[in-house]
Structure formats: structure tokens, C-alpha cells
Amino acid sequence: xxxxxxxxxxxxxxIGLSLFQVIIxxxxxRKVLAFNLLGSAVFVxxxxxxxxxxxxxxxxxxxxxxxxxxxxxxxxxxxxxxxLAVALVLRLLQAECATQDHDxxxxxxx
Amino acid sequence: MTELAVFGxxxxxxxxxxxxxxxxxLAFTIGxxxxxxxxxxxxxxELVVVVSLAWIxxxxxxxxxxxxxxxxxxxxxxxRADGATVLVLLTxxxxxxxTMISAHADWQPLPDQHETRAGLVFWTLxxxxxxxxxxxxxxxxxxxxxxxxxxxTFCAVPLVCLNGKAETFAAALRYLLFAxxxxxxxxxxxGLIYGLWGTLDIGLLxxxxxxxxxxxxxxxxxxxxxxxxxxxxxxxVPLHLWLPPAHAGAPAPVSAILSAVVVKAAFVVLLRLWFExxxxxxxxxxxxxxxxxxxxxxxxxxxxxxxxxxxxxMIAYSTIAQMGYLFLVFPLAGAASxxxxxxxxxxxxxxxxxxxxxxxxxxxxxxxxxxxxxxxxLGHVMxxxxxxxxxxxxxxxxxxxxxxxxxxxxxxxxxIETGHWGWAVPILFGGLLTxxxxxxxLAVALRPAATPxxxxxTVPHTANAMILLLALSSLLLGLAALGTGLPPQ
Amino acid sequence: MTIQWxxxxxxxxxxxxxxxxxxSRLRPxxxxxxxxLPLPALVAAVLALHGIPLAFTLSGLSFALDQPxxxxxxxxxxxWSLAGLAVPAVLDQPSATRLSLWWLPTLAGSLAVFxxxxxxxxxxxxxxxxxxxxxxxxxxxxxxxxxxxxxYLIFALSGELCVLMAxxxxxxxxxxxxxxxxxxxxAALPSxxxxxxxxxxxxxxxxxxxxxxxxxxxxxxAYSAAPPVAAAVIAGAASKAGIIGLIRLLPIAEGLMSTWGxxxxxxxxVTAFYGLLIGVKQRQPAAVLAYSSISQLxxxxxxxxVGLMSAEPLSxxxxxxxxxxHLLVKGVLxxxxxxxxxxxxxxxxxxxxxLLGLSLAGLPLTAGFLAKLGLKPILxxxxxxxxxxxxxxxxxxxxxxxxxxxxATQPVSPTVLAPQAWxxxxxxxxxxxIVPWLLVPLSLGQPMRLALGLxxxxxxxxxxxxxxxxxxxFWQQLISAPGLGKALWQVLWPLLFGGLIALALWLPPLPPGxxxxxxxRLGLRIVCRIGExxxxxxxxxxxxxVAGLALLGLVLLFAVMLMG
Lengths: 110, 489, 564
Hints:
Mean pLDDT of chain B: 89
Mean pLDDT of chain C: 86
Shape of chain B: globular
Distance between the termini of chain C: 39 Å
Low-confidence stretches of chain C: none
Oligomer: heterotrimer
Largest sheet of chain C: 2 strands, antiparallel
Helix content of chain B: over 70%
Order of helices and strands of chain C: HHHEEHHHHHHHHHHHHHHHHHHHHH
Structural class of chain B: mainly alpha
Structural class of chain C: mainly alpha
Number of helices of chain B: 18
Order of helices and strands of chain B: HHEEHHHHHHHHHHHHHHHH
Largest interface: A-B, 36 and 29 residues
């Protein structure tokens, strides 16, 4: 198998694992982390696409630049999302701790 | 002359994106008491821009296109405004402007304060959200759409928890995470599509897809991912978990924007996917499934709305039900009137829902209670607000001659035309449920108050005027649509 | 295939289990094993339906499974197994052990009677099932049960003597070469000098078994005295011994049987209406069910009678299906009664019971609809067809009456039942709803085609092995049949008619402004209830994992749909 296949399969595996966590784990912070991982796996997949779309000029391999550009944009978006989510988790904890006992768990699930 | 106008159109398309963004940046950097006025000014300028753009597109029957930086697809990003886009754009503009004006007095800093946190966030993020929404409408590039949808979410989420209560943080987090899940799925789909054809431009992809007689597995998976991801963002049943707490918990002007504008963004992209990328998909199983989920949403949302004891959760569940109507467009797409019906419903619902939420906000602030059973005497205290509430409610119900009526009429027509009579059942039944929850409020509100000591209304006239304007626009939209005769194609 | 050992094993299993009862240490275990014992028979029946011939002969007694036998055997084994599962839950330990001692021989006989392939083995099985039912009926230790069991014994013994005499007369013209197989019996009968005596005695004996008027009076007494869980197997499975006897032993031959056929048909119809009329006046739920059994078996008998009159072999196919359906449904109804008598009425159970009860009347989409549809081409559109439709209307009324009585049933001290009892009821209900749908192409293929106006090609009525592709093909043809709408209406109107009568009879005295007030009071309550349920459902939907999984499910669904 070629490397891109391995990377693709790896990305698929991570996507599966992190989707599982996002859906099953009731803790907000875990969800955020799992979501972050999910995003990263998708970007790995984009990297695979870049390699597959690439070619060779004068013997020098190059990758398709568009997916790479998409990765960079996506990273910024994912970063912003994570920051926002973590800020919300923090505020949620603060707000809950202000009103309730300290040992209550903060959940966003029903 | 035409060329000159097209040139002007191009400028306007870019301006429509840039103006609110500029407003957001200025409001954020200058801040303080000025932020509000910057945002309001932006709204007025944007109103002028969008109206002119709409005038050009409608008057000259053209489609305005603009390629960013002169780059052509497959590499470049296209902006495109056609008649449908312009209609939604105009609706959003009216809703935004009216909401901003009606909320202009909210979150005033105290005399010794420089600014309030909530005020700054509101007046900064609202124009930013607007810019993101306009990008969603105008963009022709799948990845660009993703970024725009993300910005839209990022602007909407902090607005949800503007009042800083624990439960609104939970609602906002839930909203954010579920929306993100939807976005990632969408992004994954877009990536797979790029892997297939090396472009993300909807027009080019539509060309490629029209050549296929059978979808390759990667395309099927990609479309499945994108469709489901977008559906998560439109809060269609059973993916609606985030909507009721977020829309009911947010401050009323924010709820108005969220229900009227934000949920529609993902739906517009869905329409793009299914009508532009894959025309003629009405009879596919996916379209049928979407229709079934839509019907489910109509019933579930309607029943749940009927069973709420408070005004805002009721209106939030009503949004779920009304989104269901939009999804009936997919299985009925074979009929000429379906597309127009969907578009009209989207716009009239946006106007009516914004009016409802703003009215609910005024009721909470000035009547002091939003338990539906406690609304007796409202008609006496706040007659104008209640009138607006009623008119907007009639539009949701689909009473003639409102926009909601014409939309449902066209949907029913489509159901008959395509021979799928079954879809008429949820359409009509949903109307019944809507009538139930609207009349429930009106019946209580028109009763004389138990305690006659309630003071007369102190609702600011501007707010009342804006709510009425929104409700009446929904009505006028219906009249205008009736005036055009046949639904647009 | 050397699977031939399966049939003897299947039929002998209950008897072997009975032997273990000799050991007092093992005896208390018996009730917990009851559900296992019919399973070999179920496997054997399923194999036979798939076209694997199963047969064996043991010292002159021959057993074999053809498709009619296998169908009834499969249904009976299911009922016996699931009713057996509920026994330890509804009865206390010593009582259940005592019941098991009679349960096992009844089971053995009840299974064997469907597998019997000759006159002797049939009579043997018939006698076993008839006699050992006595123990089940008289199980309860009170005067009423003893009275009922005594009455049953007199009827059953006289019936069995009649059948024995008939068997002797049937066997008389046969020689050692021809053997005693059913084919030989029915072939020899038309030329036999004792034919009328034989047929008359047979109908008398079997008529007692299936409760033809005026030989029916033991049945309501017995069913209401027996523990309901035992009544489930007697009314469901054991009573079908009479039906299989009518099918096996009466020859279909032009001319000879027309008088007897007419008699059977008339008696059957009279019984059908008699059961309905008396049934609606009953207050005990078990008695209501008993009269419903009388009515249903009467209808089956009249179906066979019409078949004899017109020498129509299709009537047997329709009768087997009708009987198999009734077997399962009546089992469910009695089982539900058994559970409710211990734990009190529950609206979910009542809902299921209503559905299955209306299945007996032919509610569309239930299996009963198929059974009713199968009657149509045989009974025709004339007087008999109309009478059968009216009987279906009556059945609707009777079943609604049963549900009402069931809802009013209050145990003296409600106890919590073991979950296995509810499991048994649930599974049996599912089986009653689903299994007949699977069996349709085997027996009801031709009648259904006739009823729906499809061409009847050269497919034999029986002995086409069951296979999934054939099944799907069959339903595809039927669903696109032109006569479906008409057939639907033909079955539906009696149901609506019966429902209306029930409504009219039970409507409380109406205040002025009748309907509106009623709708307000009743409708509002129902609507609120539905609303509550929807709200609860929505609450579950809003749980994060549910919504997340729904999202992923949609992704996969759409992807698969687009690929397909």
C-alpha cells in the first residue's frame, strides 16, 4: 500500500474514534477535545488529497496546493472554535459553581 | 448602459459583504457608546446597498457575478446574486435592520459606565453575523460556504449566552458543539468532493455531476456527509436538540435573529446542493427521507409548541415546525412551484418569526411575565404589540393573504402536481397545530386582566413600529407573491 | 440428509420429560423447562416448510410432516413454548409442578396430532390430547373447576368414542396392502357401504371437539375454569385437533359429500353466530374468549363444509391458514388474560390485545386480514359470503367486548410478574402478527390470488417449499394486484360495522349537544395523552447521544441511498 492509503486509513480511524467520544462522552471538555481531534483527522485527510492531487515537475514531487490552503484556513477556524468552546466551558463552570455546590457535575447532556 | 449597471452590481455584491464586516470591526475597535450607532449606521447603509442590488437584479433580470481577485474557478471563488438570493438577502436585511432599531435602547451603559459587555458583544457580533450570512448567500464555493457557516455559528453562539446565566452557557455550548459536529461532517464531504474533481465551485461541480449516470461511492458519501451536516445546523428533527434551549434562552432580539436568519443559512446551502448541484433529485430516496423528517418536524414541533407553558420556548418550537415545511420542498421538487414555495416560506417565516420573538421580548420586559396562562390583560396593556404578534401568527398559520399562506398554497399545489398527495397531510395538519398555539396565546391575551391595576403600555414606539413593520412585511410579501400570479421558477 | 431423527425426537421430547417427573428431585424443575420442550418440534416444522421431508414409522404408527401439518405444528409449537415460558411466572411453584404433569402429555398429543400420517397414529394422538386436557381444565382446586372438568370429560369421552367408531368404520374397507394412510382412507371411503355412518360419527366426534352447536356447552365452562395459561394452549392448540381431523379424514369427492358438506356448513355458520350472540352477553373474560373460540371454529367448519359441498380443495388450504392464525391469536388473548389476572390491567397490553382481537375480525395489515381474504373465493359473494362478513362484524363487537371486560379485570392482590411472562406475551403477540404473513404463500397462495383477481397458474396448492425469494416474489405480485382495493373494502366494512354497533351499544347516556361534549371530554383527554407521549419522545430525541447517533445514521443512510 502506498503512504497516502495508510494516512487515509489512519485519518478514518481517528475520525471514528473521535466521533465516538463526541457522541458518547457526557463531559463538555472531553467533547471539545474529541472535536479538536476530529478536526485534525479531517485535515490529515485533506493532506492525503493534496498528495494525491499532486505530481512531479522535473523529478521534484509537489503537492496540490489548494487542499493545503484549505487546511490552513480550516486550522484557523478549528482554533477559533476550540477557543470559543473552552471559554464557554469555563464560563459554564464558573456560573454553575457560583450557584451550586462545588461537586456538581456540569453537563450539557440531558 | 447594461454593462455599466452590471459593473455597478458587482460593486454592490462586494459592498453587501464588506459593509457589515466593516461595521463589526469599527464597532469593536471604537466600542463604548458609539458601537451602537456604528452598527445602526451600518444597517442603514447595508439596507441601501441591498435594495439597490435587488433593484438591479430584478429590474434587469440579470444574474450578478463577481470573481474574487479576478481568479476564475476552478481555483477562484465566485460570488453570485440571482433573483432568489436577492430576495433572501433583502429579507435578512429587513429583519436585521428592524431588529437592531427595535433593540437600540437595550444594554445601555449606566451613566458612570463606559460600555456594557453585553452591549458591545451584541453590537459587534450582530454585524459580523450579518456579513457571514450574506457570504453564505452569495458564495459559490463549497469551502467558502463552510467558512461562512462557521463564522455565522461563532457569532451566534456568544449572542445566545449574552445574559450570562448558567443555563444559557449550557445552551450555547450545546449549540456550538452540535453545530461544529455538523460543520466537520460538511467539511469532510467537501474535501471528498475536492478529491474527486479538484474544484469546489458549485457551478463546475454541477456540470461534472450532470455527466454521471451513477454516483461513485465517494460522491455518495460526500453528499451524505454534507446533507446530514447541514441538516444538523438547520435543526431538523431529530437533530434539533440544540435549538429550543438556545433560541428560548437568548435575549429576544438575538432569538429573533437566530430563528429568522441563522437557521436559514444552512438551509440555503442545502437548497444549493440539491437544486443546483443535483437538479432533478426529487424522487430519490434521500429527498423522500428529507420530506419525512420535515413532516415529523412539523408534527413534533407543533405539538411541543402547543405544550409549552412559556412564550419563548413556544416560539422556539414553532421554528422547528416551520423548518419542517422547508424540508418538504425536497420531495416536491419535481413541481414547478416547489422552489418558489420554499423560498417564499423561508422569507415570510423569517419576517414573521422575528416579529414574534421581538414581540415576546417586549411582553417579557414590559408585561413582566411570559407564562402563557398569565397573559390575561395583555391586549389591554400592549394592544399594538399584540396586534403585531397576531399578524405574524396568522402568517405562520397560513391565513390568506399572508406570505405563509401563499407558500403553503404553492406547496399544496406542488403536492398535487407531482401526484404525491400524502405530503398535503403534514402541511395541513401543521397549519392546524400552528393555529392552536397562536390562538392559545391570543385567547388568553384578549381576556380582561384578573388584576385591573396594570399600567398602560410603556413599550417604546420605535420597537412597536419595527415589530409591526416586520409582521406587515410578512403580510405584504404574500400580497406581492399573489400579485406575481404563478410561483417563480 | 440424515435429519430424519428430528421428528421422532421432537414428538417424544415431552414424553421423555414426563418420565423425569418420576424422579421427585427433578420434578420441581419441570415448569422451568416447559418452554424448551416444544422447540424441537418447531425446528422440525420449519424444516418441513422448507421442503425437507420428515417422516418415520414406529410399529405401525406412521408420522410425517406435510405442509398443512407443519404449518399448524409450527404455530402450535410456538404457542406451547411461549405459554410454557409464562407458566412459572403466573403460577406458584407447587401448582406449576402439578400443572406440568398434565401439560406434558397434552403437549405431546397436541404436537403429534399434526404429524400423524395414518388413522391409528391420528387417533392415538387425538385421544391423548383429549384426555390429558382434562387434567389441565381441572387443575384448580375448587368446585367449579371440578364441575367443569367433569362436564368436559363426559363430552370428550363421548366424542372420542364417536371418533374411534368412525375410525374403525373408515378402516374397515382397507386391507393390509393399502395400509391405513389418510390417502387410502379417503380414497376408499366413497365406495364404502358404511360411508354415511362413518362420516356422521366423525362429524359428531370432531364436532364435540370444536364445539359445534349444540355440542359446545362444555367449552365455556372448561375455559373459564382452567387456569388461563392452560386455557391458552387448549383453546389455541388442542382444539385444532378437531380441525386437522376434519381436513385429514373427510374426502373431497364430487357428489358424495354434498349433503354432509351442507350440513357442516350450516351447522358451522349457526355456531359462528350462536357463539357471537351468547358471547357478548358474557361477563367473564375467559367465557367471552370461549364463545369467540366456538364462533371462530364454527366459521372454520363451515368453510370446510362449503369446500366439501363444492369439492374445492382450496378450502382446506384456507382453513389451515385460518386455524393457524386463530391458534396464535387465541393463545395471545388467553395469555394476556392470564397475566392481567395476576398483575392488573395495563393499557399497553390492552392496546395489543385490541389489535390482535381485531385481527380475528380481519383488521387490515394484521394477519387476520389475510385469513379473511382467503375465505372470500371459497365462500363467494353470495349469502354465505355475506353471512361470513356479518360474522366478522360480530367478531369485532365480541373482541371489543372482551377488551372492555379485560380492562375491568382486577386481581384481588396485584403482584409484580417476572419479566419472562411479559416477554412471552410480547413474543407471542409478535409471532401472531408476523408468522402468518410468512406462511401465506404456502397455503393461502391460491385463495389470495383468486380473491385479488390474479390469474391462478399451475402452482400446486401445497408442497412448494418455502424460500425467501419465492416469498418476496409472491408479495410483489399481490401488492400490485388490481383487486386489492376492493378486497380491502370487503374485509373492512364488517369491521367498521361491528365497531359502530359496539360504539352505539356502549355510548353513555348523552347530554344535549351530544357529540361536541363527548368529543370535548373524551377527545381532549386522548389528545392530551398523545401530546404527553410526543413530548416524552421528543425529550428522548433531545439527548445528546441520540441526536449524535441520528446525525451519523442520516449520513450513512443518505450515502447508501445515493449509491443504490
